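Q: I'm writing a short explainer about 9467_t:CDS:1 for a general audience and would like to include a description of its predicted shape. Could you first generate the structure from this sequence?
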Amino acid sequence: MCTKSKNLKKDRISTRNIYDELLNYVKARDIEKKDVSQILTIQNWIIVLLSEKQ
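A: Of course. Here's the predicted structure. Afterward I'll give you a sentence or two in plain language.
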């Protein structure tokens, strides 16, 4: 496996990671639960952002 492929896998952010991080902000009272997007919405953000990079 080339180095570039290894770095891409290491840097990959999953939908679940983003959702969990947003919930951490809720626990810290930085944002409200109602402001956290649903997992499907986050997946759509990732798809759009990746398609824009290509």
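A: For your explainer, you could say: The mean pLDDT is 80.
Q: Perfect, that's easy to follow.
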